[in-house]
Structures are given as C-alpha cells and as structure tokens.
From TrEMBL:
Location in the cell: Nucleus
Domain of life: Eukaryota
Protein name: Scarecrow-like protein 32
GO cellular component, one term: nucleus
Span of the signal peptide: none
Keyword Acetylation listed: no
InterPro entries: TF_GRAS
Location of region: SAW: 300-374
Motif (VHIID): 87-91
Amino acid sequence: MWVLNNVASPVGDTNQRLTSWFLRALISRASRICPTAMSFKGSNTIQRRLMSVTELAGYVDLIPWHRFGYCASNNEIYKAITGFQRVHIVDFSITHCMQWPTFIDALAKRPEGPPSLRITVPSCRPHVPPLVNISIHEVGLRLGNFAKFRDVPFEFNVIGNTEGPLTPAELSDESTSFHFEAMLSLLNPTMLNLREDEALVINCQNWLRYLSDDRKGISCQSFSLRDAFLNLIKGLNPRIVLLVDEDCDLSASSLTSRITTCFNHLWIPFDALETFLPKDSCQRSEFESDIGQKIENIISYEGHQRIERSESGVQMSQRMKNVGYLSVPFCDETVREIKGLLDEHASGWGMKREEGMLVLTWKGNSCVFATAWVPCEMRDHIGIDAGLS
C-alpha cells in the first residue's frame, strides 16, 4: 500500500484518481482491523456536502447514469397508464424525485388530457449521495408547484415519521438514517391509501440494493428483506413495476472478488468524467468523492454496515421471476428516446438489449440496467402483456 500511496493521486488521470480512492478504502479497512498510525494523502473522512436542488439537477445531468433509468422508466409508465384518469406512483429512489418533472411535462401533453397524479415516497432513504439541503416535504411542494404550472392535478404523500430534514447528528448516524423493516410495515393498501380507480405504479431506482439479502433474523418467513419487499409490492397488484440499478454484482463475501468487480465497474464514471471535465474541476471532484464513499463502503466494511450490495441485471431478473413477476419488454419508442438522450452525451455511451433488459454501456462495458415487470397474477388484467416472459 505504501507503493500505491506514491502512485495514486486524487488529481491525476483516471486510473490514478480511482486508485487513490481504493487505497483510501484499503487503509480504512486495515485501520478498523488493526489500528495503526498509518498516514495517507487526504483527509480521514469523506466530507458530505448538501446540494441545492439546482446543483442536484446539474449532478444528475453530468453523465446519463441516472437519466437513462428515468427515461426508460418514464416511457414505460406512460405506456402502462394509457386510458387511466388517475395514476398513483409509489417511488423508491435516491435522487429526491428528480425523475418526475419530465414525466409531469409528458402528462401535460397527453392528447386526451393529463390524468391526476399522486406520488407517494418514504420519509427515509439510504444515507448515500446525493444529499440535498431541503426536506422531502419541500421537494413535494416544489413538484406540486411545477405540476400546477403544467395544469396536471397533483398530490404528494410521504409515508413514515420524519417531518423535516435530519439533524447533523442524525445525518452522521447510519443506524438511524434508514429503517427498512419499519418501512415494510407501511407497504399495505391502507397506509398507502390505494384507490380502485387508480393505476398503481411501483418505481425502484437504485434502491433495492440497499435492502438486506440476509435471511437471518427475519421472523415467521425465510425471506430476506429484499425478497420480502418484492413480495409486498407484488401483493399491491401494481400495473407495472420499474426496477433500475447498477449492473454489477457486489454481493460477494470475498473481499478480493469485490475489489476486482468494484474497480472494473466504478472505473466507468471516472473515465467518462475524464472526457469532458478538467482535472481541477470542483464538480468532478465532488462527483468522484461520492463514488469514493461507495468504494469505501464496499471495501472497508462488512456485515450490516456494508450497505452497497448490488446484483447484476441477470441476477436481479432471476430474483424477480422467482418471486412471481413477469418481464415486460421495452417498446421501440422507449429505445428511440434513450438513444436521443445518449446522443446528448459523449460518444462512448451506448445501449444494448439483454434478456428483456435495456443496459446502459460505456465503451461496451455494462453500467446500469433497466427492467419492467408485472405480477404473474396481473397478466390477464392488463393490456401490455404482449411478449411477457
């Protein structure tokens, strides 16, 4: 590690910058196992800055890592709710509802007129970047103002107990920032106030990987929290379920396997940023710092503290089928929309179809997968069943 310390640089080329974060994570891990007086170029803790909403918009627009999933999901949702005058989206995501202004705008242009839109979100989220300086309630107010401007009837609901932004003490405490088991108890028709005349949509963007897949300690059932969540939302009879996440298996117990997989996967955003941002760009440094936080969690932590446990798209698809979902193929219009989005970015970005998924790629390497699903029981009750598998 001393040799790597002399080679790695947080302001060097792509590999030097990425190596500096891996070195940092390895030193952090070593210090947890056997505390020593090890020194390293850089601060001891990753500083987390709260973004404004405007800064967040710029953040998600830097590379199509998030917009790819937004575009794929929004187009499939729009298709699935055809003919409905009321739409209810239960949104599980980490980007503070940045997906929905574009969707609201699309609803406003619907030839038959916009439906009423209800969005429900949990009060808590995984304590991972990006973090913003306003509460989820304020996010809802801003969405409501935009919907009003576009003449789309709108309602925003928050389920859970958090009434405002977390305090600095709460922000620093991983154990209090995210309570999945409590959230699962809220996923029922009564708490969600489900209505018979609504098209129910479940949207999961970079979320499911934070649910534990450990089957130990789950009372009454052999399901992990991850499978329990999928079973619960299936029982709500949604018209469509959108699942988007990073196409990378970081669930291995082997540290060596995680290091190799993590390096090969997270090299991608570092390399993509290199193509258009200078080495001394503050925006680039902040984006890379957020990735660095993920690297540290994957490498430095074990047990319940290691929350970054993504699965590949193939693994997740098999999980969905095992739980009782059918895959919905993406339509040609969605593919065209995504290609148009990618044309706005560097030429290294691409997309491929793979086993019912759409996969974002960088220089041929898989980055993010997007999938759409319906419960098996709903197959005969929906009009989007062509090609279900």
